[in-house]
Amino acid sequence: MQLIVTKNPTELAKTAAKFITKRINDVLKTQDRFTIALSGGSTPKALHELLAKSPYVEQVPWAQLHIFWGDERYVPIDDSQNNAGMAYDTLLGHVYTPEEQIHVWRTDLSPDEAAADYDRILHDYFGETGAGVDSPTFDLILLGMGDDGHTLSLFPGTDVVHETTAWTKAYFLTKQDMYRLTLTAPVANRARCVLFLVAGPQKAAPLKEVLEGESNPDLYPSQVIKPVDGELVWMVDEKAASDLTKR
Ligand SMILES: O=C1O[C@H](COP(=O)(O)O)[C@@H](O)[C@H](O)[C@H]1O
């Protein structure tokens, strides 16, 4: 695991934009497409806005990206809470990636149908041959961590945190009175690289627990993200890192 601490959220977005741009260009030297899963919430907005501008916008071969989302809030795409809607507003609406290479979670289907639809898309895309969860998946998954230690839509105290086989799940998250659609740990942990972006003082206590505390994924679901062969990078700002002892 690599921990990168930046001065503030602005530097976090810049460091992440450089990291992602380099990773995309490095990987595209040996393959013709780059498969990425975006995250939602508020932290990635600044990153998206940077990527949509010079110099990053010219450095990323957008037409070679295949874009997915790690999780989705079950609200219409034009709702301000929808993760894909946010990414279109801040990034995808400003660059050219062919629509057929952009895979949104369908919130016009029932939650279970939407999870099944995404599962099918993923298995078709990754060309499942019976290897199931042993197939490598994304070149890069971007993740955030909520104030409660959740990542993706793996929330504290939910069964989905312990999922070992399914790639996608839909469930009703009582505390938010909302359905959530999410990739599970087995698929995330097959990524070639997982990059967490975490900022703000409200993340300091959960970050310490996730990185330095006892294993307790029921309380801190971000602990279940441990890529099997891939790289794990935590990029955090000073305020989020302020409780860490190992820096
Ligand atoms: O609800 C969500 O929250 C997490 C964390 O978001 P942040 O704004 O605190 O960084 C996010 O990673 C996830 O995609 C989203 O659905």
* CA distance, first residue to last residue: 12 Å
Share in helix: 25-40%
The CATH class is Alpha Beta
Number of DSSP helical runs: 8
> Could you say what the CATH topology is called?
Rossmann fold
Rg from alpha-carbon coordinates: 17 Å
What is the global morphology? globular
CATH architecture label name: 3-Layer(aba) Sandwich
Rounded mean pLDDT is 95
DSSP strand (E) fraction?
15-25%
What ligand species are in this complex?
ligand LXAUTJHC
Question: What characteristics describe this protein?
Answer:
8 helices; six-stranded parallel beta sheet; Rossmann fold; three-stranded antiparallel beta sheet; alpha/beta; binds the ligand O=C1O[C@H](COP(=O)(O)O)[C@@H](O)[C@H](O)[C@H]1O
Report what the structure shows.
With 247 residues, the protein is α/β, with parallel strands linked by helices. It has a single domain, classed as Rossmann fold. It is built from 8 helices and 9 strands. Helix 1 (9-27) crosses helix 2. The protein starts with a strand and ends in a 6-residue tail after the last helix. 43% of the residues are buried. The model has no long low-confidence stretch (mean pLDDT 95).
